[in-house]
Amino acid sequence: MGKKSNKKGKTEQISEDPHLTLDADFNQYLREIMKSVENEVNDDEEKSMIVNNFIEAIPEGVEELVARHGIGSKILEKLIGFSSIANFEKFTKCLKSEILFNDSKATYVLETCLKIATVRALSTYNKESTKNEEKEPAKKKSKFIKNSNDIEYNISQDYKVEHKVYCKEFILRVNKFIINNIESLIKSNQGNHLIRTCLLSFAGILNIKSHDKSTNQVNLKNISNASIDTEWIEIVCNLAEKVLEWPHFPELAFNERTSTFLQTLNQTLYNLDQQRTLRKLNKSILKKCFENDKDNEEESEGNVIEKLKPFSCKPATFLLESVMQYCDEKQFNKIYTSYFKSYLLIMCDSNFNFTVQRLIDFTKDKEIFEEIFTQVTSQMSSLLQNGKTGVVLALCMACDRLSFKQGQFIQSILKALECERSQNHIIQCIIALMPLHIIEKKTDIEVNLHGSLILQHILHFNKPIKIVQNLLDMKPQILSDIFCNPKGSRIADAYIDSKFIGEKSREKLIKHMEGMYLKMALSKNGSHVLEKFYQLSSEGQKEIIVKELSERTNQLGSCPSGKIIAHKFHVDVYTRNPNQWRNFLARNRK
């Protein structure tokens, strides 16, 4: 309630101040622009035109007010990344951090400007060009990408050295203010979020929202070999040293905001390859935050895990997971010994199973993994029955990643599913994660997401011979049901892409599916599999596929996926003249 009243109070203060009032005409202009934005602008060229016109239309001296305006802030947040060099510089020069931090809407605008400036400052698209030119940056080499996000757009642009320098100065100006005021900003939601954006920008990492509203990370060091300034690295390391000196440092792990801050600091230091400072930070977290008092080490079965400080609350647990991800081998071994080794089975079958999954994900030492593997596989049947399938998936993924214990994993899961002697139902048991006696009674195929992912990783094991043979022995009708299932279609991808499954086995699967090609073409997911089959097929097998489809052209044209397949495979050409289709295929081969 306090937060809401505070926000409301600020809004009222802005609207009552005569110096913070936009005139009626400009307010109407903002509403019209927002309509265009909400109606999904068609392409990046149009977005660029709209935002450039918008920034140029902002009356001088009210830039910050527009950033704090309900509609203006949304327009800027969505489109500022598509602005020209001149307009981006013009707008950001007017932003004063100390004012914007007090307004939630403007905070998002400032955060977006930070991200865009980071991409532009670290841009390597035109790295060899050092000449300052009078003209605006060169146009994109390719056509505008429809509906790309602002980060994708900026990564593919050319920027003058002058503009890169300006963006670096802007980042330093804003981030230095943030860091100098970190102890007060860290307590608020918007301030804390800005601090994390600041740290990640120094490391070349950006959080972006995709079209489905999920948040993904872009690491500019990975996609454009961006070089981080030494000054940025020094600022982050100095901040870490400063944080370690805070008298309340031991309490940071147990508060949601401060824990998230430490997690971000961890990731930033790791991405900047500052191992010494990272090791020091993680050592302090483990010792000052998580080390239990010796007086409280009495154990009882009921609450033994909760007595361990890292598991006393969610923020602390999430911080421990972050430390596991970025710490060195010695620290990881200490974490495993102190917090997991004696409690692993209890944790696997409780709400802490998610932390066990992270432990397995970050394990690199094969001796530690063998200990974990032995304990988890001994209870695999119970874990599957109790719905703790994520732990089994994590174990399978680690076997794949480490190329270790793969054969034993297959034996263990088949035993847990009671199908080790079955000749016909192994695949169904794995993808449903149900024992054989239940699968035999079912008439419909069930695909569990974790089961599908487990099978996909098994197909990438070094010797998945038994699984491959069982898959090839399945009825084509059942396989087509799996391949047409949203959770099952990627099983075909894993089969085709695995370097341990030979060309003959791939050809067998494609031929095995004869009679099911039309069914797959009429399915969104199945058509994806059919297209991969077609690409891998010999010319003779391609003709078998197209011939089957040509016999049902009316059905093929009755749905979007069928129409796409018909177009890509040139089914209409084959229907009219098979010889012409063969000649067309031969010409493309050349």
How would you classify the helix and strand content by structural class? Answer: mainly alpha
Strand content: under 5%
Q: Main sheet? A: 2 strands, antiparallel
Outline type: flat
Pick out the low-confidence regions: 1-19, 127-145
Q: Tell me the count of domains.
A: 3
Oligomer state of the chains in this structure: single chain
- Helical percent range? 55-70%
Q: How much is the radius of gyration in Å?
A: 29 Å
The span between the termini is 70 Å
Number of helices: 38
Q: Overall pLDDT, averaged? A: 89
The strand count comes to: 2
Strand order of the largest sheet: 1-2
How are the elements arranged and paired?
Layout: H1 2-16, H2 24-38, H3 44-57, H4 63-68, H5 70-79, H6 85-92, H7 97-100, H8 104-121, H9 150-155, H10 161-180, H11 182-185, H12 189-202, E1 205-209, E2 215-219, H13 220-224, H14 230-244, H15 256-271, H16 275-289, H17 314-326, H18 329-339, H19 344-348, H20 353-362, H21 366-378, H22 380-385, H23 389-402, H24 406-416, H25 426-432, H26 436-439, H27 449-458, H28 465-473, H29 476-483, H30 489-497, H31 503-512, H32 517-521, H33 524-536, H34 539-550, H35 553-556, H36 560-569, H37 571-576, H38 578-589
Antiparallel strand pairs: 1-2
InterPro entries: ARM-like, ARM-type_fold, NOP9, Pumilio_RNA-bd_rpt
Keywords: Repeat
GO molecular function: RNA binding
